[in-house]
Amino acid sequence: MMCPRCGENNLPGSDTCRHCQCDLTALDRPEPLDRVEQSLMGDTVAVLKPRVPVVVGPGATVAAAVRMLLDEDVGALLIVDGAGKLAGIFSERDLLTKVAGSPKPLEKLAVESFMTPRPECVTAGDTLAFALHKMDVGGYRHLPVVADGKPTGILSVRDLIRHLTDICREKKR
């Protein structure tokens, strides 16, 4: 990678020029090739208008959490502490992998015992590529959207797919 200031030939991916210490990070950023890549790299989570999260306290029962999942037609609930800060997430997957088969009645089980604590999160200002990368690497279908540690929304893989599908439809017109 050639330094624009001094012309030094640096190793690809170098953050600074080894000769003059010029910042080279902007030279190594990929350029979007189409509208989908433009959206992933430039649009933020806010463009998806994340759904208002359904929240419960850590002491809620699994039975109540299941009822809320069904009543609200959502795949995940966010668990908040007394200050309204995100403490965990409880998803359909948690229900199937952690709760199913428990000998105790769901009314006697606290959701706190089965939630995923300290879940990965995004902010409304994070790029779609960043959110998608977190979902891919972690194997998540839902990501809480937070501001100052408090949940403001929840993002699902369906939200991203719907957005990208809309962009592809626009391209064909």
Notable characteristics:
alpha+beta; four-stranded mixed sheet; elongated
Description:
With 173 residues, the protein is an alpha+beta fold. The chain has a single domain, classed as CBS-domain (Roll), CATH 3.10.580.10. Helices cover 31% and strands 16% of the residues. It is built from five helices and six strands. The protein has helices at residues 35-42, 62-72, 92-99, 128-138, 157-172; strands spanning 55-56, 76-80, 86-91, 116-117, 142-147, 150-156. The strands form two sheets. A four-stranded mixed sheet has the order 1-2-3-4. Strands 5-6 form a two-stranded antiparallel sheet. Strand 2 (76-80) and strand 3 (86-91) form a beta hairpin.
* Biggest beta-sheet profile: 4 strands, mixed
Shape: elongated
Tell me the quaternary state. Answer: single chain
Taking all Cα atoms into account, the compactness measure Rg is 21 Å
Counted by DSSP, the helix tally is 5
| CATH architectural name | Roll
Order of helices and strands: HEHEEHEHEEH
Q: What average pLDDT do the residues reach? A: 92
Proportion in β-strands: 15-25%
What's the arrangement of strands in the largest beta sheet?
A: 1-2-3-4
The end-to-end distance, rounded to whole angstroms, is: 39 Å
CATH superfamily: CBS-domain
Number of DSSP E strands = 6
In total, the number of domains comes to 1
Q: Which ranges are low-confidence, i.e. pLDDT below 50, for 5 or more consecutive residues?
A: none
Helix content: 25-40%
> Could you say what the CATH topology is called?
CBS-domain
